[in-house]
Write a structure and sequence with these properties.
Elements: H1 3-6, H2 13-30, E1 34-42, E2 45-46, E3 50-53, H3 54-57, H4 59-77, H5 80-106, H6 108-120, E4 127-131, H7 133-155, H8 182-190, H9 197-211
Helix pairs in contact: 2-4, 2-7, 4-5, 5-6, 5-7
Amino acid sequence: MSENTRTPWYRKKNVLILLVLLFAIIVFGSTTQTWLQVQADQGVVKAADMAVQGSKAATAVTAFSVVAIAGALAASISGRVIRIAAGCVLLLASIGIAVAVLTVLANPQAAASGPVGAQIGVTGIPLQVTLSPIIWLSLGADVLLFLGAVAVLLFGRAWTGTKKYENSTAGGAKVSDEPVDDIDSWDRLSRGDDPTSGTIEDDSASHSNQENP
């Protein structure tokens, strides 16, 4: 049985990254939908029902969800150090989303007053606000996003990153013929390899060939 088969699904890189990305997209998508149904009482004239989108009721949710999407993509392609940093970004973004959503739930009238005032041109009037189920969907997806971020931090250290240098044999360590740049050198150094070893060996061989034609 292979090692990948023995690994629980919640520890696997592909599964976790896909789930985290999915939850972040759900939160982002929910901000384009109606969070609040509002009816403004202007005295004799009662305004028609107005819908307030999540992006208007809690603008921070949109921003934090974009950050979470970027963090998930970064965690999927980066090395160990950057992956941990991306996990921290995911964790902070999920906390920011939760704070913004809970603020709307705690005082929906205050969240709706700004968008409604901009729409009808009148502020300070009584508002009757009804919460849409979408806001609860956003909160639920964010809870799962938070758990996914914690899992990335806990299990992401054991994931293998994208390797540009592959061993040609089981016991040998042949370096790729591709030129080494600063990012490649840093990746090799983080894995405990000497980024200059291949260059030194090549230079020594070249010098030896020149002395012994």
